[in-house]
């Protein structure tokens, strides 16, 4: 679509230090992003400024230095660790005679590589189109020319206007398809809510080990790698917990500082799994020296998508890389688990996580002894289907004596079913 320089695999990275914390980025994270995109960083140019320049983002002297480095090293793409305006990108491309990419464009490129499902590809394309909309004017050299020639003369729309119209139409089409996906997801969530199946969603900074932990718990075999945004498409799996029953565990896309708003908007349907979860497992890489800042960034994104009020259980991952790493559960003053220390890679502490999940999700339980006649064998089958029978024996008069333990919710539902089928209250069979 764009008439641009061919982008390649060798990049010069540009990082600018700003005094304000809100504008500051991390150079090591940029290197990880570039590596995740499959690009080789052949050089790094750093600078310090109080505010960005409107023309080149950096000063004119530093821009000339970047151009010289590109020429010397034979690089064919310049990647900035910051968000650039369309004008800044155009000026830098003209000066460096190569493709210039900002942080948002780099993240979008990684997402485009990672998308596997139809929904994921739609979400990425939507984010890319919204990003491109603001940059159309610099993507073409002929946009202001009107279509001419015999049969095409007149005041028709310019090429730029045509492209904008086509992009608006494509965005509208993708949005309609994603709305359909969102409705389907909503139906699934409502069905789980009716069945009162708890949903637990994994959240955390990208590369914190969410997918490795997901695989360790569920044996799902989803793609996990030591790279940023290894997981893009959400994965749901059923998990059985004692005293809780079936729960749904959701693996979601990782967060990152200054996550592009276009991505947040495009992944609205996916992120709703997080927004409507019963519990969030906030996975933290305890070996990362920026873990406090990463936690803050995740909190900001959760606030942006309206999921900040969902209860959280912190999961301190990668303790196998600590000298004094010991698997344990930290509790609050009421004895409720608030933090679990484990290693998803080695499996240390996984049973503690399951124990903490049971404590956080366990509903009120009912323990009763039932005595039912042999004619109510169907009820016995339901009790076994619910995995709630703790003991069984026969009485002298031929009745069945059953020890039963189940959640209060399942007990109420069973009482209603018995009343409808047998015309009698289940309480009448309780010893």
Automatic annotation (TrEMBL):
Subcellular location: Cytoplasm
CDD domains: HflX
Residues involved in Mg(2+) binding: 211, 231
Pfam families, alphabetized: GTP-bdg_M, GTP-bdg_N, MMR_HSR1
Domain of life: Bacteria
Alphabetical list of PROSITE patterns matching this protein: G_HFLX (PS51705)
One GO cellular component term: cytoplasm
Protein name per UniProt: GTPase HflX
């Amino acid at each position: 679509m764009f008439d641009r320089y061919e982008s390649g695999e060798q990049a010069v990275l540009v990082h600018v230090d700003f005094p304000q914390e809100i504008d500051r980025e991390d150079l090591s994270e940029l290197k990880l992003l570039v590596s995740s995109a499959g690009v080789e960083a052949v050089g790094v140019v750093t600078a310090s400024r109080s505010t960005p320049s409107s023309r080149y983002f950096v000063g004119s002297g530093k821009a000339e230095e970047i151009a010289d480095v590109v020429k010397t090293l034979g690089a064919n793409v310049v990647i900035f660790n910051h968000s650039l305006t369309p004008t800044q990108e155009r000026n830098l491309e003209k000066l460096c005679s190569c493709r210039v990419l900002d942080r948002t464009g780099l993240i979008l490129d990684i997402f485009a590589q990672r998308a596997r499902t139809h929904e994921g590809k739609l979400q990425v394309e939507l984010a890319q189109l919204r990003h491109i909309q603001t940059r159309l004017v610099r993507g073409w050299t002929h946009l202001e020319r009107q279509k001419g020639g015999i049969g095409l003369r007149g005041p028709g729309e310019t090429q730029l206007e045509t492209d904008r119209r086509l992009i608006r139409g494509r965005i509208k089409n993708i949005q309609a398809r994603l709305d359909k996906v969102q409705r389907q997801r909503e139906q699934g969530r409502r069905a789980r809510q009716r069945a009162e199946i708890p949903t637990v969603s994994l959240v955390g900074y990208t590369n914190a080990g969410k997918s490795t932990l997901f695989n360790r718990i569920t044996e799902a075999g989803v793609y996990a790698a030591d790279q940023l945004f290894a997981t893009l498409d959400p994965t749901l799996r059923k998990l059985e917990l004692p005293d809780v029953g079936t729960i749904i565990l959701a693996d979601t896309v990782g967060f990152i500082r200054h996550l592009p708003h276009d991505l947040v908007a495009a992944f609205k349907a996916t992120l709703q799994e997080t927004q409507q979860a019963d519990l969030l497992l906030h996975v933290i890489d305890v070996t990362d020296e920026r873990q406090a800042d990463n936690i803050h960034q995740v909190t900001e994104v959760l606030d942006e998508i309206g999921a900040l009020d969902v209860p959280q259980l912190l999961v301190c991952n990668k303790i196998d890389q600590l000298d004094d790493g010991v698997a344990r559960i930290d509790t609050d003053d009421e004895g409720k688990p608030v933090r679990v220390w484990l290693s998803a890679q080695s499996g240390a502490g996984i049973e503690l996580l399951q124990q903490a999940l049971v404590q956080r999700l366990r509903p009120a339980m009912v323990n009763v002894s039932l005595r039912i006649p042999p004619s109510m064998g169907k009820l016995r089958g339901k009790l076994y289907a619910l995995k709630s029978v703790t003991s069984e024996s026969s009485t002298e008069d031929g009745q069945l004596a059953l020890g039963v333990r189940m959640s209060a919710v399942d007990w109420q539902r069973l009482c209603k079913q018995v009343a409808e089928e047998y015309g009698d209250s289940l309480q009448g069979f309780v010893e």
